[in-house]
Automatic annotation (TrEMBL):
GO molecular function, one term: DNA-binding transcription factor activity
Biological source species: Paenibacillus ferrarius
4-aspartylphosphate: modified positions: D53
Keyword DNA damage in annotation: no
Keyword terms of this UniProt record: DNA-binding, Phosphoprotein, Transcription, Transcription regulation
Identification of the protein by name: DNA-binding response regulator
Length: 232
């Protein structure tokens, strides 16, 4: 799914990306700091979901939302703003916006919204089996989780699950699980600076610190320690 994040504050863009990516590592996130950049992106790729800050330079987020919807009636729009303003809320309703988030964005609220939009959009809707499989991965990534175990939990044959997973998600079960664990480890490295690399490895679902460091470096071109130092 293609998701557009629009905010003129770089830190806000990074925060949204930081919150979304670990949950849905194979969604494609596009970032823009104003309406011109956002429009240019939307003309090149079909955007399914857009997070728009109201207070943008040039066109407001609401004006941008109207423009995006004129070119793509299927786009879903979430307004994000630091202002609790009834006038903005009324304009949002007229635009067809059903979610209106106030900064700072809360992780639990964002999770609920993303889950709802993922399930309501035909372009991104997984089958019931794959949806259940992904939910289990997101809940049990820190445990020892094999394809056979996952297949047993969703009550289908492992071979069938493997093929279905790759067809719908676009990558294999093992690749998705590994990348999801890497994204979780990135979050832990930054949110728990007191944790050792060994602890981060274990909490993220890796049973070997050496293997974790090898995979992390292959994925990011940095060691976990280098990533923590660079991003903090």
């Amino acid at each position: 799914m293609n998701v557009l994040l629009v905010d003129d504050e770089p830190l806000e863009l990074e925060q949204l990306e930081y919150l979304i990516h670990p949950l849905f590592p194979f969604w494609t996130l596009y970032k823009a700091s104003d309406s011109c950049q956002a429009t240019a992106i939307s003309q090149k790729v079909k955007i399914h979901l857009a997070f728009l800050d109201i207070n943008l330079p040039g066109k407001s987020g609401l004006e941008l939302g109207e423009e995006l919807r004129q070119h793509n009636q299927d786009i879903e729009i979430i307004i994000v703003t630091a202002y609790q303003n009834f006038h903005y809320a009324k304009q949002s309703i007229r635009l067809g916006v059903v979610d209106y988030m106030t900064k700072p964005v809360i992780q639990s609220e964002l999770n609920d919204i993303l889950s709802k939009y993922r399930n309501k959009m035909p372009q991104s809707k997984y089958s019931h089996v794959i949806h259940d499989a992904l939910t289990i991965i997101h809940e049990k990534y820190a445990e020892k989780l094999a394809l056979a175990d996952l297949a047993a939990e969703v009550h289908i044959n492992p071979t069938y699950l493997s093929r279905r997973f790759h067809d719908e998600v676009g990558v294999s079960f093992s690749e998705y699980l590994m990348q999801y664990r890497i994204q979780i480890s990135k979050k832990y490295l930054l949110s728990h600076p007191d944790w050792s690399i060994s602890t981060v490895s274990e909490k993220s679902g890796f049973n070997s610190q050496h293997y974790f460091c090898t995979i992390f470096r292959k994925s990011t071109s940095q060691t976990p320690k280098e990533y923590r130092e660079k991003e903090k």
